[in-house]
Every structure is written in structure tokens, then in C-alpha cells.
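FORM 7B: Structural annotation worksheet

SECTION A. Query
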Amino acid sequence: MISIFRQLLVALLIAALLFPAASESKAISASRATVNGTIKRLRGRRASSGTTIPVVPIEKFGVPQLFYAKENPDLGIEVLEKGLRAAKEKKYIAYDLGVLLRNEKRYEGAIEAFSVVLGEDPTSEICRSVYQERSQLYKAIGQFEKAEEDKRRWATAFERKFGHPPSAQESF
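SECTION B. Predicted structure
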């Protein structure tokens, strides 16, 4: 627990140097910011309406919702792209980026991000969902052969995890 806290603290301190505020957002200091008339302690980047997102992606686990600002989705995408370039372990940051790009209907970019996940660790726990996501994205852009190939890879990963092929109810 302490080592995760230290990693997060170091990452947050480095963030100020690596991620300058974009013109459409405000950098939030470690001290205080006014949100809806009350003073809050915040750390991150704030979209114009007040949504705060982290300025540093985390390499050890992914939570795409943390980086989504409805008012300005490009802000979270920018943070994740910068983090992906700097990260040693890329799969969770790439997964978060892929989800945001998919939600914004930027399918080719989402496919690239999900491919980074699979390229780094094709047997990790998140790969089943990544194969499923990427298959649906390939289908959306009309690349049906690649979609079927990823569906087969998903079924293989499913069988490896659960010891049996997916049933009709478990399939997508």
C-alpha cells in the first residue's frame, strides 16, 4: 500500500513538469481551487465546466472513466497519449486510451491503442476484453476478416481462462 502511494505521489510531482496545461483547460495546483462556489483540494486538469481529470496516467491499472471529461474529451485523450509515450508499461494506459477513442468514434485510433495492449502482453487478463473490443471496431469499419480473427482469438483466450470454449450465452 505504501509503495503504491509513493509511486502515485512521485507521479503527481513529476506531472507538473511533463504535462503543461492546454489552452482550453486550467492546471489545478495541489493547494485549492474553487468549484461551484466552494473551495476544494484538487489535483489534475479541469475542463471548462469544472470536471477534473488526472494529469498522469497510471501504468499498473486502468480506469478509463477517470480520464473522460464530457465537456472536452480531447483533454483526457491528450493526457493518455502523452502518458503512453512516456510509459514503460503501456497496456493499461493504452486500454484507457482505446476506450476513450472508441467512445468518441475514432475507431482507427482505438484499434491502434488496443493493438498496443495486445502487443505488450497478449496473454494478460484484459486481453479477452481487448480482443472483443477490437473485433467490434474492425466490424464497424468494415474489416470483417480481421473482426472474425479477433473473435477467434477471444474464444481461445476465453478457453484458456475458463477451461472450456464459450457457450452461445457467453459469446458476443
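SECTION C. Observations
The first strand starts at residue 26 and ends at 28. Residues 16-35, 37-41 have pLDDT under 50 and may be disordered.

SECTION D. Sign-off
Analyst initials: ____
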